[in-house]
Amino acid sequence: MPRDVDRAHLHPAFRALNDQLQAEVTAAGIPIAPFEMWRDPNRQAYLYAEGRTGGIGTPGHHVTFESAWCSLHQFGLACDWVWRDASGAWSWAPPSGFTWDQFHALAAKVGLVYLNFEQPHVQLAGISARDILAGKVPYPPGGDDSWEQNIEAAIVAWGRSPKVVDGQQNAGAPPLPSAAMKPPVVAA
C-alpha cells in the first residue's frame, strides 16, 4: 500500500491544525512537508511487521511501535512530516541549520502534540487510538463525509475480528463512526 497524503482523509479537527502547521513551517522557511497522513490499516500492519518478522525490513529496526488500529493515523488524526533537501528529495535527517525542536515548537504552537520517540509524527492532542478502539472515547466530533467514507471503507474492508498480518497480531477494526456518532434510540 502506498503512503497517503490526501488531506480529505484526515478528520477535519486534525486537518485544520495540520494545515496551520503547514502555514507555520512555510512562513518560517523550514524545509519539511507532510510525508504520510491517513494510513490504511494494511499499511500500518505491514510497517509494524518491519523488523519484527523475518524477511520484512531490517531485523530489530522497528518502523512503528503500533499495529493496525492502534495508531491515530488510521483515524485520520496524525501525520508524519519529513525533511526535504535542496533537490526536493525526502530525508529523515534535518538539513544543516534546522532541528526537530524547531518543527516540534511550531506543532505545539498550533495545538498538535509530537512523540519524543517518533520525531516526524504529530497528532491531535488528548486522544488515543487504543481508547477509540476500545470504545472508551468517541470519535472526535465534526467528521465530514470525505473522512467518514474513507474510514468506514477501511473498517468494512478490515473487519471487526483481529487479524494476523505478516506474522504479527493486529486488532480488529473499531465501530463505524456513523454508528458510533448516532444518538441512542430511546424506547417509548
Q: Could you characterize the architecture of this molecule?
A:
With 188 residues, the chain is an alpha+beta fold. Helices cover 32% and strands 16% of the residues. The chain has six helices and seven strands, in the order αβαββαββααββα. It has helices spanning 12-28, 41-49, 100-110, 129-133, 145-158, 177-180, and strands at residues 32-36, 78-84, 90-91, 112-115, 118-124, 163-165, 168-170. The strands form two sheets. Strands 1, 2, 3, 4 and 5 form a five-stranded antiparallel β-sheet that branches. Strand 6 (163-165) and strand 7 (168-170) form a beta hairpin. Helix 1 (12-28) crosses helix 3 (100-110). It starts with 11 loop residues before the first helix and ends in an 8-residue tail after the last helix. The relative contact order is 0.19.
Total tally of structural domains: 1
CATH class categorisation: Alpha Beta
CA distance, first residue to last residue: 48 Å
The dominant shape is globular
- Backbone CA Rg: 17 Å
* Helix-strand makeup class: alpha+beta
Instruction: Tell how many strands the DSSP assignment holds.
Output: 7
Number of helical stretches of at least 4 residues: 6
> What is the N-to-C order of secondary-structure elements (H for helix, E for strand)?
HEHEEHEEHHEEH
CATH architecture classification:
2-Layer Sandwich
* Percentage of residues in helical conformation: 25-40%
Poorly predicted regions: none
